[in-house]
Automatic annotation (TrEMBL):
<protein>
    <recommendedName>
        <fullName>Fibronectin type-III domain-containing protein</fullName>
    </recommendedName>
</protein>
<dbReference type="InterPro" id="IPR013783">
    <property type="entry name" value="Ig-like_fold"/>
</dbReference>
<feature type="domain" description="Fibronectin type-III">
    <location>
        <begin position="4"/>
        <end position="120"/>
    </location>
</feature>
<dbReference type="InterPro" id="IPR003961">
    <property type="entry name" value="FN3_dom"/>
</dbReference>
<dbReference type="Pfam" id="PF00041">
    <property type="entry name" value="fn3"/>
</dbReference>
<dbReference type="InterPro" id="IPR036116">
    <property type="entry name" value="FN3_sf"/>
</dbReference>
Length: 161
C-alpha cells in the first residue's frame, strides 16, 4: 500500500478556487496516482438555515478520519498530487482528503480540515504606489488563511503580473 502524500499546501486562486499541492509518499515500488475528495464541513450543504449556531458538522472522529456519512461533493484523480478545485462556495468550510492509490490499495488520507473559502480576493486588493508602477496590497489577509485545528499548514498567495 502506498504511503499518504505529505506537506500539502493550499493556494487561494480566486474566491471560488483553490489549488492543492502535496509531496508524494513512497509508492511501494508500484506506479501510483492520487485522489482528492472534497467534503462539506457544513451542516446542510444546500446552505439552508438550521437551528444550530455553528455551521461546522459535529461528527465523531477516529484515527481513520470522519466517521459517518458526509457525502463527497468533488472528486478528482491525477498522476501527481496536484489539484485545482473550482466553484466552491465562499464563506463555507470544507474538508479535503488526498490519497495515494496503486495496485495494492489506497493510502490513509492526508486531511486538510476547516478550509474556508473567503470572499473575492479582488474586493480586498488595493494598488500600492502611484500610477501603474506599484504592486498590490491585500487587505484583511487573515480572512484568506484557512483555520487549522491540529495540522500545520502553509498558505502562499501568489499574484502574477
Amino acid at each position: 500500500i502506498p504511503e499518504p502524500p505529505s506537506h500539502c499546501t493550499l493556494y487561494n486562486e480566486t474566491s471560488r478556487a483553490l489549488e492543492v499541492n502535496c509531496i508524494p509518499g513512497s509508492d511501494g515500488g508500484l506506479p501510483q496516482h492520487f485522489l482528492l475528495e472534497v467534503r462539506s464541513a457544513i451542516l446542510g450543504l444546500d446552505h439552508q438555515s438550521t437551528s444550530q449556531t455553528s455551521h461546522t458538522l459535529q461528527t465523531p472522529q477516529s484515527d481513520q478520519g470522519v466517521v459517518g456519512e458526509i457525502p463527497t461533493i468533488y472528486r478528482s484523480e491525477n498522476p501527481r498530487p496536484n489539484f485545482q478545485i473550482r466553484d466552491l462556495e465562499p464563506g463555507y468550510e470544507y474538508t479535503l482528503a488526498v490519497y495515494a492509490v496503486n495496485q495494492r490499495g489506497t493510502s490513509e488520507p492526508r486531511f486538510i480540515r476547516n478550509v474556508r473559502i473567503s470572499e473575492d480576493v479582488g474586493k480586498n486588493m488595493q494598488q500600492s504606489g502611484s500610477g501603474g508602477s506599484g504592486g498590490f496590497v491585500i487587505n484583511g489577509l487573515k480572512s484568506f488563511i484557512p483555520s487549522s485545528g491540529n495540522e500545520n499548514m502553509m498558505l502562499i498567495i501568489i499574484i502574477g503580473v
